[in-house]
Amino acid sequence: MPRNVKKPPAVLYLHSYPSEVDAFRNADFCRLATAKGVAAVGFVSALTGHRYHDRPMRQWFISELAESLVTTVHDVEMVVDYLSMRGDIDMDHIGMFGAGSGGSIAILAATADPRIRAIQVIDPWGDWPDWLAKSTLVPERERPLYLRPEFLKKLAALNPVRWLTRLEKRPIRL
Description:
By secondary structure, the chain is of the alpha/beta class. It is 40% helix and 13% strand.
């Protein structure tokens, strides 16, 4: 939370898979993120870092990409719900920053939850057949599994490129 600001706006930060929460524990990052009077909320995606547990090693963020995306979009909604319940955040000014997979999730979350009024994304993942064919995060021996039609079909509705035009048409009330 920024100092001496009553009901600040908030920005949710979601970095790309496989990031951890280390950046959010860094005092310099926290000072910078809140320096202009904005609350900063950092978290990691499903099946990432401390959120990867109780699963076979063969199940990971990309092998379960549809689940990872949908679960994390739901998590974003839960974070916004929590911020709303606190009563000390300006809920008319909620934004989200996402990089890589976090950018994709930011687009999907803003589409699903109109309380997210602004997003900034850097290098969002998307266009799944192309991304999965070229990404260095995908092990070569596993790549053919993720290019199968049945895997891509699960992701079709979760392509952030598809949802960007809907965000452009959504009225923004500030």
